[in-house]
Amino acid sequence: xxxxxxxxxxxxxxxxxxxxxxxxxxxxxxxxxxxxxxxxxxxxxxxxxxxxxxxxxxxxxxxxxxxxxxxxxxxxxxxxxxxxxxxxxxxxxxxxxxxxxxxxxxxxxxxxxxxxxxxxxxxxxxxxxxxxxxxxxxxxxxxxxxxxxxxxxxxxxxxxxxxxxxxxxxxxxxxxxxxxxxxxxxxxxxxxxxxxxxxxxxxxxxxxxxxxxxxxxxxxxxxxxxxxxxxxxxxxxxxxxxxxxxxxxxxxxxxxxxxxxxxxxxxxxxxxxxxxxxxxxxxxxxxxxxxxxxxxxxxxxxxxxxxxxxxxxxxxxxxxxxxxxxxxxxxxxxx
Length: 335
What we know:
Elements: E1 2-6, H1 11-22, E2 26-31, H2 39-47, E3 55-59, H3 65-75, E4 79-82, H4 91-94, H5 96-116, E5 121-127, H6 151-170, E6 174-179, E7 182-183, H7 192-202, E8 206-208, E9 215-216, E10 219-220, H8 221-232, E11 256-261, E12 267-268, H9 269-280, E13 286-288, H10 304-310, H11 318-332
Parallel strand pairs: 1-2, 1-4, 2-3, 4-5, 5-6, 6-11, 7-10, 8-13
Antiparallel strand pairs: 9-12
């Protein structure tokens, strides 16, 4: 299969590219290597794939409508995985326009590329953040998600709506994946595990929001990638039982699906920090702070649909996952 991956130099995109190449797929990797965080880390991720004969490295912004159209027309991918996005809830409070540019305008260009080039399946990254103000746990893809609490979450909800429209109008099979707090080797420096590790090793205090009472469904990178691949290989079908009288948000009369990919086992932030301290052999100094605007206090994924349709459930423990990250971090940064 020929798969076009946007965000191929990113945390998830680079790991997914490797897995697909290893199984014999051809990968067209799109990325702009922007400086939201260290481009050297992105280059290092890309270095693991770009010399592979099945990998094509394309440097372009998703917002470049004509350029993206040319990439699709030239390569004619069978499948597309859209992972490129302006990430981060907190940064969306500072620079909301960046989220509209990449996550909405860029995603529109991807949808148009799929529409005009006979793409067999579009899989795209949504986020657990779409659950917003919901408090019923675990979060289900069948729940209403009309109350986002950050512009980042709103753009991810918008992606789901845009994808459904294309599935309905053009019968483009689309699958949205709501990722839950992804972590692991080669991760993003702006995420908690990376920040905590760097500061603890440097003897600096870490900022612990919501006074450490956060509960997160931390999901290991390899589990995320496995979930992406299984759903990519599972093209959604219209739901014959769907009814507008009692609409199900996770399916449709169109070839459209939504899945949570989470560990299905929320962990308190303080336990997460304790495991990290054990792995580093060093205690953290903590600044205990209130819940930040745009954040939610807890996430917890219902993955029953994922199990039913693709026979998969993430299962990496945070103890092993954090140990793997720390080993990678010390090796990469020569600590």
